[in-house]
């Protein structure tokens, strides 16, 4: 449900990382405005070969699964995504109290090539550049799996850990590896401290978005009336693609269609009911990142 996503963003955007299974989120400067990243020094050696294009993923950290709703699974965003041009996308500040906006808060911070190397050196020390591996805890129910995906020298490395941050149920074999993963995630959660400079942030503006629509059902006269918005595009029952969640379709929006949707969605709440003709829809959204496209994936 959207409330779970907003709560997750609120927890992830906290300045201090607490214990438990919640994943942290990179800290950014609370000062308004964007501070430009300093120029990389030409003499800094680049030991890790990475793609430099803005759509090329370098590092992604995401937590998925656990006791969450199917709609949350469809719309969840990574906690950290670094791309070849130095763009990092992270969850932004939480919504105001008593507000659950439809559109998630996402921010961009920017780092230099030398700082990408520093991040990757820490990833290497955490064991993220070795063979694919899974370091799970056992005997823990309804937790999520944190997955670290790193792309270096044209090779993709995937390291996962179920219930990362929970110490119980961890074998001696996995304990050291999980500790390194937790330490790395904590370092990325306070990126300004890790890099030794204040990072400004700006809002992330996607060029493509997945919109998930499901039947909202008839209005319940015993409940307060939900906000209503008119679906601004064509019939979603015809344009939508099936998803892994029965009864839910995905519509991928770009260009003018995305602009038309955002004009309405910018003030919509997670509880807003969208209408098209006699149909009533509940909507979840997933802004796409530079390496993503369409409804697949």
How is this structure best described in words?
By secondary structure, the protein is an alpha+beta fold. The protein has two domains: about 1-200, no CATH class; about 205-285, no CATH class. About 25% of the residues lie in helices and about 25% in strands. It has seven helices and 14 strands. The chain has helices spanning about 1-10, 70-75, 115-125, 170-190, 190-195, 235-240, 255-265; strands at about 55-65, 80-85, 85-90, 105-110, 135, 145-150, 155-160, 200-205, 210-215, 230, 240, 250-255, 275, 280-285. The strands form two sheets. Strands 5-7-6-1-2-3-4-8 form an eight-stranded mixed sheet, with helices on one face. A hairpin with a 3-residue loop joins β2 and β3 (about 85-90). The radius of gyration is 20 Å and the shape is globular. The two termini are about 20 Å apart. Mean pLDDT is about 85; it is low at about 1-45.
